[in-house]
Amino acid sequence: MRLDDIQESDSIEDRRGEGGGGGGFRMPGGGGGLGFGAIALLTVVGWALGINPALLIGGAEIVTGARNGGQTIQRQSGQPPASSPQEEQMRQFVARVLKTNEDVWTQILPQQRNVPFRKAPLVLFRGETNSGCGDAQSAMGPFYCPTDRKIYLDMSFFEEMRTRFRAGGDFAYAYVVAHEMGHHIENLLGILPKVQQAQQRVSRKEANLLSVRVELMADCLAGVWAYHANQNWRVLVPGDIEKAMAAATAIGDDRLQKQAQGYAVPDSFTHGSSEQRTRWLQQGLRSGQIQACDTFNTQAL
């Protein structure tokens, strides 16, 4: 991606110095946690225990408090590791991606839906921090909290994408940020509270399907952002779109479930299959229209 001429967002809330555990940004080859490779299995466990893992619509991508072999992250005393040059470079990248999201949605949300855009601060943390949706841990992956309207990100997640899922690359990382911003857009449109209320009245299977629709819409909205960001600033370079598609493929419920347990259970999907995620991302990329992302008024997802 070409972001050298893009300013950094002033909506970054940097909590990496809180000393909340974890080891900061690790270069390839370092150990990883459960990350969001465990999403399929944890979703099944959540339902078995009667816990809806998608209760906070658009919230935690993974419902777990465990990492590093199942050990709970403990708060550590003392100062956290200093920011490395690689981590600082990634912070700048995230801040610039966030800025393009803010500029795009400030323009097109009022134009296309007559709804004013309000910024969603992005919280950077290491290991663990507090959120309006409860304790935020790196093992949960990036997530949007609709309660405080903030995005939470431990940047070590990008290493996990690159090493564990072989889905690295600038635009793949930008897609993750834009997906969470997509949940914020859904919240501003009033979709998230309506879906959350509906989930409480239907079966698990139907609640899962509602969650899938929310997630696929966020994928599509990430594509809408990319369309307009490229129109405005020519941020995309050859290979970027392919990297984002690889990332969307890698995090499909079917792919993750097969990796975790050897088979997929479609009724337990909460984010959509690899094919669905790539298709809706492409739809947003092609159209640049919010209306094209309406996953709630289509039979075939």
Describe the overall structure.
- The chain has 301 residues and is an alpha/beta fold.
- The protein has one domain (12-297).
- It is 46% helix and 8% strand.
- It contains 9 helices and 8 strands.
- A 4-stranded mixed beta sheet has the order 1-4-8-7, with helices on one face. A two-stranded antiparallel ribbon has the order 2-3.
- Helix 4 packs across helix 6 (204-233).
- It is globular and about 45 Å long.
- The protein starts with 11 loop residues before the first strand and ends in a 14-residue tail after the last helix.
- 50% of the residues are buried.
Please specify the SSE layout and strand pairing.
Blueprint lengths: L11 E3 L24 H10 L17 E2 L3 E2 L12 H29 L8 E3 L3 E4 L2 E4 L5 E3 L4 E4 L2 H8 L6 H19 L2 H9 L4 H30 L6 H11 L2 H9 L12 H14 L14
Parallel strand pairs: 1-4, 4-8
Antiparallel strand pairs: 2-3, 5-6, 7-8
Helix pairs in contact: 2-4, 4-6, 4-7, 5-6, 6-9, 7-9
Number of domains: 1
First-last Cα distance: 29 Å
Poorly predicted segments: 20-80
DSSP helix count?
A: 9
Largest sheet: spatial strand order: 1-4-8-7
Spell the H/E element sequence: EHEEHEEEEEHHHHHHH
What does the main sheet amount to? 4 strands, mixed
Radius of gyration: 18 Å
E-strand count: 8
- What structural class is derived from the secondary structure elements? alpha/beta
Outline: globular
Beta-strand residue fraction: 5-15%
